[in-house]
Amino acid sequence: MRFPFSFSHITAGFVAVLIGYTSAAALVFEAARAGGAGPLEAGSWMWALGLGMGISGIGLSIYYKTPVMIAWSTPGAALLITSLPGVDPSHAVGAFLFSSALITLCGITGWVDRLMALIPTSLATAMLAGVLLRFGLSIFPAFAQSQILVGAMVATYLLGKWRASRYTIPLTFAVGVIVAVLQQDVILSDLDVQWTIPVFTMPSFDLSTWIGVGLPLFIVTMASQNLPGLAVLRAHNYHIAASPLIGWSGVMGLIFAPFGGYAFNLAAITAALCMGDDVDKDPARRYWATVWAGIFYMLAGVVGVSVAGLFAAFPTPMIATIAGLALLGTIANSLSVSLSEASTRDSAILCFVITASGAQFLTIGAPFWGLVVGLLAYHGIEKKRA
Fold first, then answer.
1. Burial grade of 113 (CB within 10 A; 0-12, 13-18, 19 or more)
2. Which of 309, 239, 288 is nearest to 16 (CA)?
3. Residue 42, SS3?
4. Residue 135: per-residue pLDDT
5. What is the pLDDT of residue 154?
6. Is the pLDDT of residue 328 over 90?
7. Contact assessment for residue 35 and residue 318, using Cβ atoms and an 8 Å cutoff
8. Nearest-CA neighbor of 257 among 332, 221, 203?
9. Which of 251, 302, 371, 383 has the least C-beta neighbours within 10 A?
10. What's the rounded Cα separation, in Å, for the pair 169 and 355?
11. Containing H/E element for 72?
12. Residue 265: which H helix or E strand, with range?
């Protein structure tokens, strides 16, 4: 009897959570502090986000047998850093609930599915390639910082590809950890593991806070997170209904907002880490990677602030290298698909370069604008040309 999951699923899930925390946890802590949170409240934010991401990711992945990963809203956290100072914590929670209610409404009405039907595969894959490109580009700068560590990881990766091993990424990560430990780049002496105590904040509702905090949080979460997350699923040929996924992410926000779960959405970058050939040659079994990611998110949540210290113990070049190497295949496949049709090549390359720029406009990230410009080019120029 075949075991339902493998070591590569576990490793992919762990690496996805590792990348998620090391790349954005600092923003979440800063957002909590901007909202007047002390150490206990900040730990509660991590508890709520970890449990919300884990429960929803595990449930949706098993139900749909599709690698669905739910994440916190990284641009939402950046927005809160500037918009929460001076806002009463109870009003902030009311704004979180308002934003999550709007996200839930989007899922219930089904308009997200209708929107995604307008996006051709070439644009979805071009946006995905643009989102992930910076991770591939980070490998050589990481090598410049730590030649032995990154060199050993790249050599392991190339050897694994030469041998066509399904454990290429797990072995590369293991070699990175071993070399980092031998170089004394991993410091765990100050790590103090403590259980998180959730802190409930009674919401109160203020119209100006809804407009100034809740509505912008909804917009950036939908435009900069959920749309790219849906594009990642489409780019990997997972064509499940989008509206239930969006709806359940909103429900998680309604449940966990009083504890600091400010916003939940579909993951894009970390989800892509669980969808490549290195995870499993069989696309129908890759959902086990996101199940394991959900388990790790829940474990991270129950120890709250302590997990940030654990992930911070890994050296930055190692994190950058494992992320870049794990995503190389997805970047290559996405570019190949997006540029394969001459009739959509112009719109796809526009979408790709704008997304890859990483620029923001009106507080909304480049993936959204890349998709908008790509759609304008596709529907306004290339369809007429055809």
1. middle
2. 288
3. helix
4. 82
5. 93
6. no
7. no
8. 203
9. 383
10. 26
11. strand 70-72
12. strand 264-266
Name the pairing type of β-strands 70-72 and 264-266. antiparallel
Nearest CA to 156 out of 141, 135, 137, 176 is that of: 176
Q: Which two tokens stand for residue 93?
A: 């929670």
CB count in 10 Å sphere of residue 309: 15
Alpha helices in 35-120 (DSSP H): 39-64, 74-83, 89-109, 111-116
Once rounded to an integer, what is the mean pLDDT over residues 88-115?
Answer: 89
**What whole-number distance in Å separates Cα of residue 16 and Cα of residue 7?**
14
Cα angle value 236/27/320 (rounded, 5°): 55
Q: Where is 266: in which H helix or E strand?
A: strand 264-266
Both structure tokens of 294: 């959900």
- Nearest Cα to Cα of residue 224 among 371, 28, 75, 354: 75
User: Tokens 């129908």 — which residue?
Assistant: 284
Tokens, residue 236? 């990997």
> What is the residue extent of each domain of the chain?
7-339
Helix 39-64 with 7-34: angle, nearest 10 deg: 140
Q: Which two tokens stand for residue 106?
A: 């989007």
> From CA 92, how far away is CA 85, in angstroms rounded?
10
Q: What is the C-alpha separation between 229 and 232, in angstroms, rounded?
A: 5
**Token pair in block for residue 210:** 């809804």
> Residues 327, 273: contact at Cβ < 8 Å?
yes
Give the CA radius of gyration of the chain: 20
- Asked if 213 contacts 84 with a C-beta cutoff of 8 angstroms, the reply is yes
Q: Does the structure show a pLDDT above 80 at 318?
A: yes
Place of tokens 């909202």: 35
pLDDT tens, position by position, 274-306: 888 878 888 999 999 999 999 999 988 888 666
pTM, 2 dp: 0.75
Q: Residue 263: its pLDDT value, please?
A: 93
Quickly state the pLDDT bin for 1 (edges 50, 70, 90): very low
